[in-house]
Design a protein that fits this description.
globular; 2 helices; 42 residues; mainly alpha; single chain
């Protein structure tokens, strides 16, 4: 769905399960996190 590496997908899955925000500078991970509403908003 988001074409992430396994490493990034694992972090994203953990954030979703824990409802914990992700902070990243990686464009693909940022887009995926925003789409799943777990992107850190400063």
């Amino acid at each position: 769905r988001f074409e992430l590496t396994a490493y990034d997908a694992a972090y994203l899955e953990l954030a979703v399960r824990r409802s914990a925000p992700i902070m990243t500078r990686d464009d693909k991970l940022m887009s995926a996190a925003a789409g799943l509403d777990v992107l850190w908003k400063a």
